[in-house]
Amino acid sequence: MQIAEMHGELMEFNEKLHKKLLNREKQMRTMHIVIEDLKRKVVFICKLKIVEKLFFLRSNSLSSQSMNLIIPAAFLQGSSKGPYHVYQIYIKIRNEEWIIYRRYTDFFELHHSLKKYFQIVKQFNFPPKKTFGKMDPKLVEDRRKGLEDYLRKVLFMLHENCPQFANSPCRITLLTVLPFFRFTSLINFSNFSYFYLH
């Protein structure tokens, strides 16, 4: 009888130890995820500072030009069920600088709208929609470059073809002519997953 009781107690003790071990493993996995997330955020902040310095240097080196636009980064947003990329856009017109964030669908809608009003936009290379492989880093980088080139062409096309913007190239005029460049709080920095920098 005592052996059976001891065996039962030993089994119960073993089960408690096993549960504690599983809980500790779960805590370790959670801590690992938190640490990795913090590492990514620190890297992001460092890279963002580098991007800001690069943008400042680039824009200052373009003394002969009054406008510049770059897309230095793309951020992965959303849940695992519906992830998407948000592109960071730096715009400089004369002494005014600002940053906006847009999804690919925003660019696609802009392109579709501009083609109705400006025939020349049909000749601009626009990164095509993709059904598969949208999260592939190479595709994101190629798309980032393509969208940057596209927006630069749009900006200079507006300067050449829109008298209101050509006569007074500034932030307010651009936002009046093309609301796409307005600031919106689209990105959630606490939830980003990847960072791409050229």
TrEMBL record:
Q: Which residues form the PX domain?
A: 65-198
Q: Where would one find the signal peptide in this protein?
A: none
Q: Which GO terms describe its molecular function?
A: phosphatidylinositol binding
User: Record's SMART domains?
Assistant: PX
Q: Which domain of life is it from?
A: Eukaryota
For this entry, the protein name equals PX domain-containing protein
What would be the name of the gene that encodes this protein? 20214936
